Amino acid sequence: MGLVFNSQVEALLTVLALSVFADKRVLSTEIAAFIESATEINEKVQSDIPVTEAKLLMWFEMNRIRLGDKVRLGPIGFKHWFDSVMSDLAKFSDRDFLIRGLQRISLSDGELHISEKALCVLVERRLRDKNKVAALLPSC
Predict the structure, then answer these.
(1) What is the dihedral of CA 121, 123, 126, 129, to 10 degrees?
(2) Angle (CA) 68 78 76, round 5°
(3) Among 12, 105, 108, 110, which is disulfide-ready with 29 (CB 3.0 to 4.6 Å)?
């Protein structure tokens, strides 16, 4: 069995890693930027397994094919899958951290591809919609 983080960490890593695949090119600079996020990710999430650069590299390699396949899904299939990933981030409160991470990884190759920008917009919208729904729910 491979490395498995809790569902929130898995979802966070999945969304961040999508920025590596968004432009259909997997570049070493983007992988490096993803891996270099380990310390910051470790500070932002609750995980039984410490998030280290070595573990992020292993996670990325173990999930590379799966994520590439998800990016190639049609619009409806991708939407259903992406919505399920984002639902695992429902209790993740640091929206700015996630957006900054996406931008940092996307820009690490020196350009912001239209599909990387679209991913950032999609994530921002899902997080905003989640916050609207949460505001309507009674607090505990």
Answers:
(1) -60
(2) 145
(3) 108
Average pLDDT estimate for 83-90: 89
Residues 6+ apart with CB under 8 A from 20: 26, 27, 30, 31, 34, 60, 67, 105
**Over the chain, what is the mean pLDDT?**
84
Which residue bears the tokens 């599909």? 115
pLDDT band for 21, please (50, 70, 90 cuts). confident
The residue ranges of every structural domain in the chain are: 7-134
Closest CA to 29 of 108, 107, 102, 104: 108
Tell me: pLDDT of 125 over 50.
Answer: yes
